[in-house]
Amino acid sequence: MSAVTLKVNGRTHNLDLDPATPLLYALSDDLALRGPKFGCGLGQCGACTAIVNGRAVRSCVTPVKSVAGAEITTLEGLGTVDKPHPIQKAFIDEQAAQCGFCLNGVILTAKAFLDKNPHASESEIEKAMSGVLCRCFTNVRMLSAIKRYAKEVAR
Amino acid sequence: MKSSWDSGFSRRDFLKTSGALIVSFKLGRAQQGPIAGSPKLSDVDSWIAIGSDGVVTAYSGKEELGQGISTAQMQLVAEELCVPFDRVKLLYCDTAITPDQAHTSGSQSHPANFNHSNLAQACATAREALVKLASSQLGVPGDQLTAKDGFITGASKSISYGQLIGSKKFNLVLDPNARRKDPATWTILGKPAPRPDLPALATAEFEFVHNVRVPGMLHGRVVRPPSVGATLAGVDESSVKGMPGFVKVVVKKNFVGVVAQKPWQAIQIAEKLKVNWSPGPTLPSHENFYTHLRYQRPTRDTALVDSLDVEEKWNQGVSLRSTYLHPYQMHASIGSSCAVADVQSDKATIWSPTQAVWYQRNTCSMLLGIKPENIHVIYRRASGCYGLNGADTVTYDAAVLSQAVGKPVRVQLSRKDEMAWENYGNAYVIDQHAATDANGNIIAWEHESWSPTLGNRPGPATPGNVVTGHLLGFEPEPFVPQTPAPDPRAYNNGSNGIPSYVAGKINGKAYGTGTIQSERVILHAVRSAFWTGPLRSPARLQNTFAHECFMDELASRAKADPVAYRLRHLRDPRLIAVLNAAAKAANWTPRASPKPGLRPAGIATGRGVACVLYEGDNGYSALVVDIEVNQDTGKIAVKRIFAANDVGPISNPDGLRNQIEGGALQGMSRCLGEEVTWDDQKITSVDWSTYHTLPLGFEVPKIESVLINRPDQPTNGAGETSITVIAAAIGNAIFDATGVRIRQIPFTPDRIKSALGTRT
Fold first, then answer.
1. Which of B97, B378, B444, B485 could staple B518 via S-S, CB 3.0–4.6 A?
2. Of the candidates B676, B669, B678, which has an alpha carbon nearest to the alpha carbon of residue B698?
3. Nearest-by-CA chain B residue for A40
4. Closest residue of A to B330, CA-based?
5. Does the predicted interface ipTM exceed a cut of 0.85?
6. Right CATH number for A2-77 from 3.40.710.10, 1.20.120.1810, 3.40.50.2000, 3.10.20.30?
């Protein structure tokens, strides 16, 4: 165990952790955040996604020591029920969920991509989302929500 | 808006202070018995409570799994009770407060709670009671009073529900004659209501079972056997003593688990723990599995229909035979299953994603040796389950580990433990045999299938139906051989074993949707090496794949248009209407398959159709696909899907579309890539690189849903309609595009390329 400093959603946390602990456990267990979720533990599905220094990373395979001091954003860091972020609002407006478990990875992956590629084409967006899984297959609505947000970013 | 899932409201608190209000009705129709201890299904108070503030709290035994049923149930309550949608709170699946309605499964939530019983009838009974009360309090005859927006109004007088009954019990039984609202007058049902859970989901405020945190909670990890059927030979606890966070190694019969302070510690301890296992029996070869399945003995045989004359028809007409193969497939939920249990010496509280909280309570009682009435099971949503995933088994894991340490324990399965040990959707071998007359009309149809089975949903008394219960020493429900099949006594097409085109005659009466008089359907269940259980459209999807592809083969042989040929053999007007609606939406041009002018290479385009009356009585579905087959790579691209649905009166059109879209795409993923694999000892499809699902960003087809509203009919389920037909529609489209019939799921590029290579 050793001290690790994590900056999550604008707040600094000093945690006593095995430095090899995947970031996911620090976020969901030590910090009790509900956004990042364990899906596979193998970096294959995207449910655990967090944005680290502007890039979407798979927190289940990212050791905490490698992100110490970095700016980490989780889904709760974007907006709230009362004041959702525009991309969250796009998902609510499109009714783009079934169980909702994958939304964390879907929304954060899309946001990180569109923030860097505001003029991405539809097929580029689909390609960017090809590493994320939704087993309820809400693909149609989720892609509509992402494209709706993309239009806002591009404006 | 405060949402129902995090409400601190408790029925017991509410009723403790409530007085009694007596209005008498004659006793309603007795309901089938729920588990002892459940609120009575016949009591209005089991379903509805109205607070002094007029807020209506509804209690349901049908839970939100992601399918949108909570929104529809809230619409139902708001509509039937005449209150605004946002004045309804819905609490579901908590053994302290909600009635036992068995499983939330099988597209049965709408039939159970929207037709003339249960939640819907409780609301109608309550509304009529409120009018009666208002009549006596306002001194206005009941027929001059109207219920609207939580008030009863008439003769220039008005009184609120809160004033009439606020915080008091109804003390009424459900009145079977209480009048349901005419769908023509609906203002809340029948309209697209947004899902109240979506804002919390999109902003991570929503509490999944994975997010449940209890003071003092520890973390468990199970150590499953390395291979199917392996038994425990020994555990070396000293191999993990002293590891950071170590709490305990728990061994019970063949169950092994560890408990630690933190989840990552539990994972590391479980990996390090030295466990010796005696290997299980050698598994049947995956390569020759379907042959193994067909010849396995003993069998449990069932006859669904038998006109006793099919044999003589084979020589009267031109006969056609085909065999269809469907693999085991997984639920493969995106989040591996998770539960939290707090087991103390003589009582327990359990947060579980189970589909049946009351059954979970009783089976946990068997595992823990604690009286069922001292076990409180609270449903918490997990990721979509699509049937029996690891939800029940992980709940047993958490309960047993918590009991062993006397503290609350959370368990989340590893990806591999989820995928290697869940109860898979059934594999099938299906033989089809039909004969046609000189005009190409079908005169006889025989269907014979073989499918393996082991375990099932645990039900109220069979924890051994899932892996953890079995490791703990409980047996799965017994396999009882039965040969030959007894004569069918009643029509049962719950598994869609009977094709849509036969008459479905039992004792001379036709119950089926078709016209073919000579018919025989025989099913053989055999023992499975792997756990099996319901996976979205269980058996119905597999049978419909075989029926609807075979129907296409017969149409092609008769050089008939596949839609017109189906219509020639159908007699159910609603199935005919739904098939016509899908064809119309797709701009279907009549012609036979395959399409003229086939080319041997490059991109080939084709179309396919399939239809079904789901479960023989639970939703009409027809679907047309347009696809492209890359004949050089064998890859299929589905370009457009036209899905027509008739599920009776539509409660939430947007929710229905969401289910149709999700079902169609999930079915597409299943038929294009999903298959459970194994070697001679163990399952080898254990993650997303070895079990092939379609990702979010694949080339998603355009989906057009055609909703047929039938306000005059009973309500059907809609969660499994489109998924049941899409594999067949795609298979038929592959044939249309290429002239090659693929009779085995999944339609992988390799399988398609190799089939294309056999073309002459």
1. B444
2. B669
3. B415
4. A135
5. yes
6. 3.10.20.30
